[in-house]
Design a protein that fits this description.
Distance between the termini: 37 Å
Strand content: 5-15%
Radius of gyration: 19 Å
Number of strands: 8
Order of helices and strands: HHEEEHEEEHHHHEEHHHH
């Protein structure tokens, strides 16, 4: 995607052709970093050896190509062997439709989660290569302020799903209630984290994230040595790229014997089975079913094309309507 920068590519605040002061502080520790990377995008680079070598020493798996970046002075660059990257870069990926807008889509969805619904997310921004193509940048949350690696376990591992036992699509096996069951098992303060997890699952439904599989939910080590729900990551509206289902997990929200009635009733039952107080569940649903004006404002200020802004908004409003019943 080639686009003029008229809104901050880290917060979508109007009137910024660079990162706003707030983003500079949160994402880059106060260093004035340019949103333009000193590289051609991987698809256009004549010499791909730096990108290829970089991929060999990043341990983050997933469908999309990912690269590791480090902040040196006030410039972002690809990491070299032996260096610990501070940021993950996701350029344009191979998707059936509108692939060039995938970074802008993920960035917008993460910003809506963070700004409008106060869901804790990985810090993120858009960056641009020298040829104008965009990429999604996210700050790694698995290192503490002293640079020590924190343990992170995704729910595919916690639920002991594996290719050998569950097939190649193992991360899509199961239902979302199982995630709450694992949360209770491994998180001492699960009653604090269960409403956060519920909010995230409901958010993924409303914003058509049909790829919210088990590896896209994780626990992270705390300073006390126990675990809590990690910040949200990999949030995007998959509907504008591929025709997929409302839920990534094949089992849906609940076991098949409990899946019945309108979607609102299913979410209410999910909250009940997850042992979240009914008052809390209702409050979460009301919150995520509100603020349409704020969502629309961010969509309009995003880096999506005019057509995709309309599509994004349409899929969101359709889900809101379904949830309201």
């Amino acid at each position: 995607m080639k686009s003029e920068i008229s809104n901050c590519p880290g917060s979508l605040k109007e009137g910024f052709s660079i990162y706003s002061p707030t983003v500079i502080k949160k994402l880059f520790g106060g260093k004035k970093v340019s949103p333009i990377l000193p590289y051609l995008s991987p698809s256009n680079a004549e010499d791909k050896k730096f990108f290829n070598a970089n991929q060999t020493h990043i341990s983050i798996s997933g469908f999309q190509e990912k690269y590791s970046l480090i902040l040196e002075g006030n410039k972002l660059r690809l990491t070299n062997e032996g260096e610990h990257g501070q940021y993950i870069l996701k350029p344009i990926s191979e998707l059936p439709k509108n692939a060039e807008f995938a970074p802008a889509n993920e960035y917008l969805t993460m910003q809506i989660a963070q700004q409008v619904f106060k869901i804790e997310t990985a810090e993120n921004a858009l960056v641009f290569f020298e040829d104008g193509n965009s990429a999604y940048l996210t700050k790694r949350f698995d290192y503490d302020t002293d640079g020590n690696k924190l343990a992170v376990e995704d729910f595919a591992s916690l639920l002991q799903k594996s290719p050998a036992k569950d097939g190649e699509q193992y991360k899509y096996e199961g239902n979302y209630l199982e995630i709450f069951e694992a949360l209770k098992k491994y998180v001492p303060a699960w009653k604090v984290d269960a409403p956060k997890l519920f909010s995230l699952i409901l958010f993924n439904y409303l914003f058509s994230n049909g790829d919210a599989h088990l590896k896209n939910f994780s626990l992270i080590e705390t300073r006390q040595g126990d675990f809590k729900l990690s910040p949200a990551y990999d949030l995007l509206n998959t509907k504008i790229h591929i025709d997929d289902t409302a839920f990534a997990l094949k089992g849906g929200l609940l076991p098949k014997s409990l899946t019945q009635g309108k979607i609102l009733n299913q979410f209410m039952l999910l909250g009940e089975k997850a042992e979240i107080p009914e008052k809390t569940v209702s409050k979460i649903i009301k919150n995520l079913n509100s603020h349409e004006d704020k969502v629309i404002d961010l969509i309009n200020r995003s880096f999506l094309s005019k057509k995709l802004k309309r599509n994004y908004l349409q899929t969101y409003l359709e889900k809101v309507k379904k949830l309201k019943g």
